[in-house]
Design brief:
alpha+beta; eight-stranded mixed beta sheet; 8 strands; 18% strand; disordered C terminus
């Protein structure tokens, strides 16, 4: 090494020593994120080999009001969470006040079911592109025969909340705003986990208590719906009947779920 090379090497070494040390560290997750990550990991472990993918988990927290973003995309790889609006079923909220009264797995209850779901393939249905679901628990074992699916809806948007103070109600499906649904399809497609329960986890990770809710006799509700719409417990109502059910569940709206 000649003198010029030695001088250049020394200067470079000195500059490196003088430069401030850069520390690369990821901030610790906030309390809400930490709770959601723990729930997602627990449910992935519980679902086991039923899942095809374990990177992203959807958690629907029906312990919160429908005006609040309560569907959480929990990324187990990055440790990050982002949230969106999601509906619950009209049978679970007969007062239409935005709070869920209870869960049901019964046919024709038009209610939301709690439990772990496996996402299936996309298909084109009465609500446009939708994602089929199967229930992995006793509490949601009828998800597939009840045609409980992920779909987009105009009554699940921030604009609807701004106008009515709450989302509209579905026939039991988790419905999302039209702007959000592409993310739902992309991130939760084919073989991923969705977990639904009344968790009541607030924005800062605190517990949120639901106001007292009236008891719902879902057996009676289901029997009433079958009589009213003249359908057997094993049949699916027609598109026109479903639209009528939807409009009655969301009084005051001028648009149907297909629009």
């Amino acid at each position: 090494m000649n003198r010029r090379q030695l001088l250049a090497s020394s200067l470079a070494a000195g500059a490196a020593l003088a430069a401030p040390t850069r520390v690369f560290a990821q901030a610790a997750p906030d309390p809400r994120t930490r709770r959601l990550l723990n729930i997602a990991r627990r449910e992935v472990e519980r679902a086991g080999s039923a899942l095809w993918h374990r990177d992203v988990v959807g958690i629907a927290d029906f312990g919160l009001h429908s005006s609040v973003p309560r569907f959480h995309f929990v990324d187990l790889l990055s440790g990050r969470v982002n949230s969106a609006l999601v509906t619950h079923g009209s049978g679970s909220d007969p007062e239409h006040d935005g709070w869920l009264n209870g869960f049901s797995n019964l046919h024709d209850s038009w209610a939301t079911s709690r439990g772990a779901y496996l996402t299936w393939e996309w298909y084109e249905g009465r609500y446009g592109t939708s994602v089929r679901l199967s229930g992995l628990d006793d509490d949601n074992s009828n998800a597939f025969p009840r045609a409980i699916v992920l779909h987009a809806a105009e009554y699940a948007t921030p604009g609807h909340v701004a106008r009515w103070g709450r989302l509209g109600r579905s026939n039991g499906c988790p419905a999302f705003g039209t702007e959000t649904f592409p993310e739902v399809m992309y991130r939760l497609r084919g073989g991923r986990l969705i977990f639904a329960d009344a968790l009541g986890i607030g924005e800062s990770g605190e517990d949120v208590a639901r106001p007292a809710q009236d008891y719902v006799d879902f057996e009676r509700v289901a029997a009433h719906n079958r009589r009213r719409y003249d359908i057997a417990s094993t049949e699916r109502p027609s598109d026109s009947e479903l639209e009528r059910i939807y409009m009655e569940a969301n009084p005051g709206l001028a648009t149907s779920p297909q629009e």
